[in-house]
Design brief:
Layout: H1 3-6, E1 16-17, E2 20-21, E3 23-24, H2 35-47, H3 58-78, E4 86-89, H4 92-107, E5 113-117, H5 126-135, E6 138-142, H6 155-158, E7 163-169, H7 181-190, E8 194-198, H8 210-213, E9 217-221, E10 232-236, H9 238-243, E11 254-257, E12 262-264, H10 278-294, H11 296-314, E13 320-323, E14 334-339, H12 344-352, E15 356-357, E16 359-361, H13 366-372, E17 377-381, H14 388-412
Parallel strand pairs: 3-15, 5-6, 5-7, 7-8, 8-9
Antiparallel strand pairs: 1-2, 4-10, 9-10, 11-12, 13-14, 14-17, 16-17
Helix pairs in contact: 2-10, 3-10, 4-5, 11-14
Bound molecules: ligand C6P.
The site of ligand C6P has 18 residues, from helix 4.
Length: 413
Amino acid sequence: MDMKEIKKDFPILDQSIRGHRLVYLDSAATTQKPKIVIEAIQRYYETMNANIHRGVYHLSEISTLAYEETRKKVAAFLGAKDARSIVFTRNATEAINLVAQSWGGKHVGEGDEILLTEMEHHSNIVPWQLLAQKKGAILKYVSVQSNGTLDLNSIDSLISERTKIFAFTHVSNVLGTMNPVKALVEKAHERGVLVLVDGAQGAAHLPVDVSDLGCDFYAFSAHKMLGPTGVGGLYGKLDLLEEMPPMLGGGEMILEVHKEYSTWKSSPEKFEAGTPNIADVIAFSKAIDYLKKITMEVVHQHEKELTQYALARLMELEDFTLYGLKDAQHRAGVISFNYANIHPHDLGTLLDHQGIAIRTGHHCAQLLMRTLQVPATARVSFYIYNTKEDVDAFMLALIKAKEYFNRGTRSAR
Ligand code: C6P
């Protein structure tokens, strides 16, 4: 597959920003959308729009069918054996909150322990804090070593008889570290501990087979994998989902409603109260088709090559600080760095003036920033539509930014 051709499928990339070709290097925040996804949203509203699971008329039937077909497609894409294991949510954040509130609300009690890691996104910390505060549970953290990997040797001693769940990210959104999910699941399961994987940066960039990984829960966001915003999901083992109470109550999740109580449907309907984001779920299926056509192996390989190419050039710069592994073989397509004493926000602005979009700040990972002993970093992240030319443009802009910044600080003296 000619990866250079891929860019043509993404209309947004065919534009100039401040007189420069747009170079989008912030796909870890959200990915751009191929034309087929954008068109699917429009087609839905033009030809299918009706509420699902309710109507007996044609439009409702076809939109229900398309919505449920997407569930099957997502299940197959993630290696889930049963489509009922896939619950649609608004995003990965909501999927993690669902597990913390529903499963955690039922199974975590006073003095119980929840194991997290220092490299987690706030979405995989705060829901557990809310649960721990409510229940009197204890949070423990696997630390991050100076090379950007988890201190795997410490896990055995961090797991105790009271540990109920180990929740960790598949891929760090800051360091690009790919965690050894299968080995960690085995370790946790040996001790009777359940595992939630935050797959927000995993499902989008790596081949994922939840059945092979063996995890109990896997959370993901469609908007990070070419799909629309407002759609995410949770994979859960069916027996776990079946015994979990709903998080939200409302229409379509019930079997019977009485004055004092109600009964629910089984998974996934039990967790999808109210009218869901029908159009965007249906359009998400086109994103999956697109990724499947390329194959996740090729997606990963492409990002690896770009990361290798970028890292080799970046490491030649003076005053360049990289966070995380130096070896592109073992990291995903995310590079966090600081450069030449320029505050990341200033750097982001200087690059934006040259058409380059990068993310700066704490990346919703303040615990990790504290471990790295920095308030913020600059971050570039790649996806299938990026090319070596994008990396070249970024490098050029980076060097210009330093010149500009130095000129500015000299004249201020
Ligand atoms: N990280 C980033 O720029 P939502 O917002 O629910 O789609 O995804 C949350 C989330 C959870 N886990 C990880 C590892 C993530 O990277 C993210 C989103 C974006 O890094 C936005 S802060």
